[in-house]
C-alpha cells in the first residue's frame, strides 16, 4: 500500500511540476486521506479498514489521476471521444486478511499495478460510456472493464455521481484470486477449483463530494459488487466468503 501511495503521489507531483506554467484554470486537484472499509479479500464476507490516500486530479495535457479510477492520459481527444493510456492497481491479500482458517493455506497476494489502454465516449457533459483493457505489469493477469458514468444534478454545493461497471478477467487472473489447488482443497475440506476466463463481477458505485470550506471537503464512495461466473462459483467464495461485496470510502480532502 505504501509503495502504491508513493507511486500515485509521485505521479501527481510530477504532473503538477510539469503544469507549473499552465493556467490554474486548467487544473482541478483534490488531495486528501481517508479510510476504506473493504472485503478482507476479493470474495470475502469479512471486512477490514484500510487507510488510503485520496487523489482526484484533472491536470493539463488531458491527464487524470484518481484513487478510485486510476490514471489516464488522453491520446485521443477529439469531439466526444477520449482514449489513450490507462493504469491502475489491484488490492492483494495478506495472511491476516485471510483469517485463521485460510491463512497459511490459501496464498497471500501482493497488490499489483496493471497498465493498458482505454476508450471513452462522452455522450453529454454529464454522461459517458467507455472501457479499458489492462494487463499486470508483473504477472499474467488481464482485465477488461466496461462502464457508464453519470453526474447527478447538484444539490446546492453537494455534488454526486453514479457508475455502473462490468469486469472480466482472463484465466490467470481468475485463478490467482479464486482458484483452489488440490493441496489447498484437501486441507480445507472443499473441492478444488480452477476457473477460466470470463465475467468476474458487476458493480454499482455512488460517489459524493461535500465542501466544508472554500478549499476543504468530505468525499464519500460506496461501491456494491456482485461476483459473477467462475468467481461466484469458486468453492473458496461459496464456503468461506460471499458473492456480495461492499466497499465504502470516507476521506477528508483539500481542493486546490
From TrEMBL:
Which keywords does UniProt give here?
Answer: Cell outer membrane, Membrane, Signal
Q: Which family does it belong to?
A: Belongs to the MipA/OmpV family.
Query: This protein is called what?
Result: MipA/OmpV family protein
Superkingdom:
Bacteria
Signal peptide region: 1-19
Q: Does the keyword Membrane apply?
A: yes
Tell me where in or outside the cell this protein is found: Cell outer membrane
Note whether Signal occurs among the keywords: yes
- Record's InterPro entries? MipA
Q: Which organism is it from?
A: Dyella kyungheensis
Amino acid at each position: 500500500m505504501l509503495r502504491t501511495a508513493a507511486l500515485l503521489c509521485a505521479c501527481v507531483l510530477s504532473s503538477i511540476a510539469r503544469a507549473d506554467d499552465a493556467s490554474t484554470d486548467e487544473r482541478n486537484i483534490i488531495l486528501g486521506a481517508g479510510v476504506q472499509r473493504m472485503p478482507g479479500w476479493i470474495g470475502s464476507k469479512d471486512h477490514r479498514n484500510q487507510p488510503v490516500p485520496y487523489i482526484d486530479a484533472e491536470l493539463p495535457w488531458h491527464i487524470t489521476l484518481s484513487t478510485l479510477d486510476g490514471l489516464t492520459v488522453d491520446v485521443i481527444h477529439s469531439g466526444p471521444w477520449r482514449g489513450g493510456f490507462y493504469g491502475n492497481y489491484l488490492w492483494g491479500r495478506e495472511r491476516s486478511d485471510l483469517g485463521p482458517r485460510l491463512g497459511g493455506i490459501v496464498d497471500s497476494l501482493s497488490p499489483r499495478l496493471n497498465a493498458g489502454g482505454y476508450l471513452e465516449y462522452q455522450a453529454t457533459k454529464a454522461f459517458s460510456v467507455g472501457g479499458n483493457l489492462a494487463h499486470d505489469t508483473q504477472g499474467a493477469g488481464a482485465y477488461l472493464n466496461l462502464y457508464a458514468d453519470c453526474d447527478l444534478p447538484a444539490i446546492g454545493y453537494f455534488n454526486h455521481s453514479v457508475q455502473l461497471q462490468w469486469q472480466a478477467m482472463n484465466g490467470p487472473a481468475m485463478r490467482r484470486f479464486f482458484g483452489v489447488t488440490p493441496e489447498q482443497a484437501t486441507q480445507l475440506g472443499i473441492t478444488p477449483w480452477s476457473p477460466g476466463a470470463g465475467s468476474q463481477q458487476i458493480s454499482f458505485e455512488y460517489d459524493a463530494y461535500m465542501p466544508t470550506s472554500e478549499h476543504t471537503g468530505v468525499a464519500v464512495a460506496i461501491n456494491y459488487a456482485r461476483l459473477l461466473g467462475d468467481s461466484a462459483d469458486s468453492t473458496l467464495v461459496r464456503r468461506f466468503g460471499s458473492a456480495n461485496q461492499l466497499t465504502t470510502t470516507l476521506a477528508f480532502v483539500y481542493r486546490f
